[in-house]
Amino acid sequence: MGAIFDNLPFMVAGLWETAKLAALAIVLSAVLGVLFGAMGSARTRVARWPAIAYIHLIRSAPLIVFILYCYFVLADLGLDLSPFWAGVVALGVFTSAYLAEIVRAGIGSVPSGQWEAARASGLGHASTLRHVVLPQALRRMAPAVVSEFIKLVKDTSLVSIIGVFEFFHRVEVTNSRLLTQPFAVLGFAAVCYFLVNYGLSRVARRLELRLDT
């Protein structure tokens, strides 16, 4: 345990980087997920087909390949992102494809009578979606959405491959220095990820209960 305490400030400092990375990626994935999920549930092919292509194209690639793509290939195309922002974009866009499917399914689970009643009251399609359908769908989507966000937090460890000095990267560096206590160091990392994700799940549970009232 002494090795952990000796390197604790160094490793814990990476949690802040991980928190920023995860928070920005969650915001990006939520915006894109709702947008493409709504497009995927549209009746017109012009809106639906691009969303379906987006979802299937991104979900067909492993996340680690997508991270490398965002960092190296986008730079060749003239969009030179720092490792941190390449990680944010990769995690956010990748997760948004899964959120889009959740949103699309959530919208589809709302009874058609809700659409008809809203349209009969004079609301347009966008207003109906925003004020009537999405709030109801959110209650059904909440558990699946939280699961994706928890998965995203764990996936932040993969961006160390492009040089982001986040929490797990610092744990790896610490383990490389010590070499003799991998169980303790990696066990500490596992505990930290558990506490972060458990806290996130508890907050989400409270939000879910509030939405049900």
From TrEMBL:
<keyword id="KW-0812">Transmembrane</keyword>
<dbReference type="InterPro" id="IPR000515">
    <property type="entry name" value="MetI-like"/>
</dbReference>
<dbReference type="InterPro" id="IPR043429">
    <property type="entry name" value="ArtM/GltK/GlnP/TcyL/YhdX-like"/>
</dbReference>
<keyword id="KW-0029">Amino-acid transport</keyword>
<dbReference type="InterPro" id="IPR010065">
    <property type="entry name" value="AA_ABC_transptr_permease_3TM"/>
</dbReference>
<keyword id="KW-0813">Transport</keyword>
<dbReference type="Pfam" id="PF00528">
    <property type="entry name" value="BPD_transp_1"/>
</dbReference>
<protein>
    <submittedName>
        <fullName>Amino acid ABC transporter permease</fullName>
    </submittedName>
</protein>
<dbReference type="InterPro" id="IPR035906">
    <property type="entry name" value="MetI-like_sf"/>
</dbReference>
<feature type="domain" description="ABC transmembrane type-1">
    <location>
        <begin position="15"/>
        <end position="204"/>
    </location>
</feature>
<feature type="transmembrane region" description="Helical">
    <location>
        <begin position="81"/>
        <end position="100"/>
    </location>
</feature>
<feature type="transmembrane region" description="Helical">
    <location>
        <begin position="180"/>
        <end position="200"/>
    </location>
</feature>
<keyword id="KW-0472">Membrane</keyword>
<keyword id="KW-1003">Cell membrane</keyword>
<comment type="similarity">
    <text>Belongs to the binding-protein-dependent transport system permease family.</text>
</comment>
<feature type="transmembrane region" description="Helical">
    <location>
        <begin position="51"/>
        <end position="75"/>
    </location>
</feature>
<feature type="transmembrane region" description="Helical">
    <location>
        <begin position="20"/>
        <end position="39"/>
    </location>
</feature>
<keyword id="KW-1133">Transmembrane helix</keyword>
